[in-house]
Amino acid sequence: MKMTTEEAFVKTLQMHGIAHAFGIIGSAMMPISDLFGEAGITFWDCAHEGSGGMMADGYTRATGRMSMMIAQNGPGITNFVTAVKTAYWNHTPLLLVTPQAANKTIGQGGFQEVEQMKLFEDMVAYQEEVRDPSRIAEVLNRVILQAKRASAPAQINVPRDYWTQVIDIDLPAIVEFERPSGGAAALDAAAKLLSEASFPVILNGAGVVLAGAIPASAALAERLDAPVCVGYQHNDAFPGGHPLFAGPLGYNGSKAAMELIKQADVVLALGTRLNPFSTLPGYGMEYWPADAKVIQVDLNPDRIGLTKKVTVGIVGDARKVATSLLEKLSDTAGDTGRAERKAAIADQKSRWAQQLSSMDHEEDDPGTTWNERARAAKPDWMSPRMAWRAIQSALPRDAIISSDIGNNCAIGNAYPSFDEGRKYLAPGLFGPCGYGLPSIIGAKIGCPDVPVVGFAGDGAFGIAVTELTAIGRPEWPAITMIVFRNYQWGAEKRNSTLWFDDNFVGTELDEGVSYAGIAKACGLQGVQTRTMDELTAALNAAITDQMQHGKTTLIEAMINQELGEPFRRDAMKKPVAVAGISKADMRQQA
């Protein structure tokens, strides 16, 4: 049938149910945004495209439904870079629409021109440029399908002079593939290893959440009485109240999980690429079981065996593989050492729960005294761990939470647990600052009836603070945001205390700035809290205001300047002066 290129584009979006777009309006996209209202597509015009991309990531991660990122060509699109790479490592299927400078002027260095395909080539699972107006629906359909198949962002690049053209086309068909369920030989080999194991441990990753595999992994764990650990920043990949749940591995994770996986003779790594940062030593403990046989399950064969020695690799959907493995287990699977294993799980969980509940302060490394000095400087202020315990007292069990990158959010890694998946939005292994606020906004857009709470340190929050100017408008949903306020870039400051003799370069923030005050200036509610009781009460009130009165609240949790474990003990060491540096060598420019 005859239609315009923009009509074909929007009709294809409708075929795939893509009803939300995030970005900033621009002339290069106006022919399609003009149709959004008629099509049932909501355009969320944020304050910065980078935050808009993270809203899209939060929306899709919380709902499982695809959304779209779109903005003006050139600088509007370049602002999406960090968000797209974040979504890539979060395995989030997103549609990245990049309107391009017009074909008739491209290459001349014209207004808002940049090589948009090159920009994203290692940040998306698939990308394609429209070569002819008549192919616009075909290309868009393929890009969306590729994003779904790879569970990652995919990009369509559209020269802006292809809009407002009349074409004669048939809309393309949606051809979806069944996800692989693993090869028969690999499944048999893995089932044999698990059946004969004396201390099997299951490690759930993001793939378990994405595949809806939590019940299947729980059934397998219960059959084996195997403890279940989760990967770093994937606390929602197994029910927190389950007796076999051991907690998260990685930075500031669960000592119980680390102690248990250290004993494993077989590890089933289910739906995880086993990225190297997630299994770094924690609490001074080398816990990865070097002699264990590892079964790695991942949809992407390129990830299997990439970071760890693997005995059996299975290319498949986590739910299908877990279900098949359960069916293939021997009648005696899990019997060897079952009673001792169950006792070890209960003992380690109890020990860690007691230890975690009594952890009020951060330790100093030998030869450093920063945390001791921080406590002495503000003896009446909350420590980060006190703040997290106060938060846990008020956080609704069904809440979706987001976390930013940084010291105080990372200290909280061991605290939250969940009853179901798609509840924990962390920035992932790209590690962008400024993720906590926009991602929780996206989650609330997708799940308006669920309480949401975002978390950020004050350094990271400063990157996204501009979104406070956007979300007070009546069409935006109410959220709750907690900012840990200690006036410093904590992770980098801890590096400075350990390796650079307290030479704090660029780590100090402006003590004259009040984020609660900024929130009030934007027409939102802003509250400062200085004690655990005040923080718990403020969060209770904020949740009530969010859910019952449609009000957004920003809570500034005033905490002391204690600093947790450094992120990168594996990558840093104390420098040694050799040639020496002197101010006298600085040349004065003319």
Automatic annotation (TrEMBL):
MF-aspect GO terms: acetolactate synthase activity; flavin adenine dinucleotide binding; magnesium ion binding; sulfoacetaldehyde acetyltransferase activity; thiamine pyrophosphate binding
Domain named Thiamine pyrophosphate enzyme TPP-binding: residues: 404-556
Domain of life where this protein originates: Bacteria
Needed co-factor(s): Mg(2+); thiamine diphosphate
Domain named Thiamine pyrophosphate enzyme N-terminal TPP-binding: residues: 3-118
Encoding gene, per UniProt annotation: xsc
InterPro entries xrefs: DHS-like_NAD/FAD-binding_dom, Sulphoacetald_Actrfrase, THDP-binding, Thiamin_PyroP_enz_cen_dom, Thiamin_PyroP_enz_TPP-bd_dom, TPP-bd_CS, TPP_enz, TPP_enzyme_TPP-bd
Name assigned to this protein: Sulfoacetaldehyde acetyltransferase
Keyword line: Acyltransferase, Magnesium, Metal-binding, Thiamine pyrophosphate, Transferase
Keyword match Metal-binding: yes
Gene source species: Algicella marina
GO biological process: isoleucine biosynthetic process; L-valine biosynthetic process; taurine catabolic process
EC number: 2.3.3.15
One Pfam family this sequence matches: TPP_enzyme_N
Residue ranges annotated for the Thiamine pyrophosphate enzyme central domain, each copy included: 187-325
Cellular component terms per the entry's GO annotation: acetolactate synthase complex
Top enzyme category: transferase
Family to which the UniProt record says this protein belongs: Belongs to the TPP enzyme family.
